[in-house]
Amino acid sequence: MKQLQKYLVLALVAVPLVGFTGGAMTNSVIKPNEAVASPALKKGSSAKLYGRLYSQYSNTKSEGSESNTTIFDDEGMGRIGFKGKSAIGSGYAINYKVEWAIDLGDGDSSGLDKEDMGSNDKGHAFTNKQSWLGVLTPYGQFKFGSMESPYKYLAKHDILHDTLAQMRDTRGISQGTMSHSGYWKTAGFYELKAGNFRFAAIRGFSNHDEAAASSNNKKDYGFGAEYKNLGIKGLSLVYAMNHDHSADKENEKYTITYDMKLADKQKIKVWYMHEDVEIDSKMFDSSAGEVDWYGIHYSSGPMKLQYSIANTESDAGSATEGDGTAYNVGMQYKLSKTSRFYAGYSDHDGDANNNTTDFRTYIFGLRHDF
Fold it and tell me: What is the pLDDT tens value at each position of the chain, 370 positions in all?
């Protein structure tokens, strides 16, 4: 398996390099609508207010306890923010994004539960998620501030993402800041898109939380690469890793995805993701383990359906929390271009030989984007 993983990473790097050799990079390789600035950009600036709102019914139950029911967004799922771009000529532009989480339920957008909150923690009407200032160039994009790592946003397939029925909360995929959760604070970022190839790298300069001191040079780093239509139309391959300075190894993931178009505007997407997790104490009590995640989407008109299943195994051996099987089933139905109805069910079945708690969740709700 390790040898196969090495070949997959080499393929991601070698294939696009074939198109780059023999001369400088030009706009025939890098398209203006990708992660570079177009030389045709006119001077001026743009700004846009955007966001998304949720109203959700959820019912969660852990083994041996009573179910918990809520009828609103009580997870800080909502977003509101500003983004824009200002062209400065010669193919360069300044761009930015400032985004906060909001909550339509109890007004606490932090999403903290009682176990996470300390005695001095208070509710937050707004919680910063992304806030960065960047530069678009003909050779890629640079960003500085708070942002997602490539590990988190590449091959993000779960249509229930950010809801209580997502695979991240069902212990189906990793959920730490060094993988599929959170934002890197005080970070530097670079991204390049060239045809079917996409590469991004991130470097953290402090702890990834609001209390981080800028003098704490943490030296975390990560990168990711994606290649679409790899030999076959619709086939894509993703490799991503994040390395925490406190760990001996990095978190790694490999994702293979295949998109198929059927008749009458029907589509099918299937994927497989393997994760080698070195640091994630929320998923494994030993922090380390392996994940195999399989999933399928079926789309027809305004409706999209999902089924995914994952097997997780802790590296610590028997009697460790984190081993088990998780799955979720989801549905989205677009009511308009900006509104949708969604529903989902998720379940985690822990290994009978360890102390992993079984739990299940079902939800349905409305989402509106603006």
Answer: 555 454 444 454 444 444 443 333 333 333 333 465 554 555 567 889 999 999 889 898 887 777 787 766 656 788 999 999 999 988 899 999 999 998 877 777 766 554 554 545 556 778 888 999 999 999 999 999 999 999 999 999 999 998 889 999 888 999 888 889 888 989 999 999 999 999 999 999 876 555 544 444 567 999 999 999 999 999 999 999 999 888 888 999 999 999 999 988 899 999 999 999 988 877 877 778 899 999 999 999 999 999 999 998 888 765 556 688 999 999 999 999 999 999 999 999 877 666 667 889 999 999 999 9
Beta-carbon contacts of 281 under 8 Å, excluding residues fewer than 6 positions away, are 176, 287
Contact 284, 275 (CB under 8 A): no
The tokens for 9 are 């990473």
Report d(CA 97, CA 91) in Å as an integer. Answer: 20
Q: In which residue are the tokens 């530097």 written? A: 188
Q: Which of 307, 308, 301 is CA-nearest to residue 273?
A: 308
- 164/345 Cα distance (integer angstroms): 9
CA distance 87 to 117: 43
Which stretch of DSSP H or E encloses residue 10? helix 2-20
Rounded Cα distance between 225 and 159, Å, is 22
Here the tokens at position 113 are 């539960």
- H helices of the chain, in order, are 2-20, 150-153
pTM of the prediction? 0.81
Helix (H) / strand (E) containing 3: helix 2-20
Q: Is the dihedral of CA 159, 163, 168, 170 positive or negative?
A: negative
Residue 243's identity, in one-letter code, is H
Burial label, 187 (beta-carbon count in 10 A; 0-12, 13-18, 19+): buried
Per DSSP, the residues of 163-216 read: STTSTTTTTSS--STTTTSS-EEEEEEEEEEETTEEEEEEEESS-SSTT--TT-
Q: Look-up: residue for tokens 């305004």?
A: 302
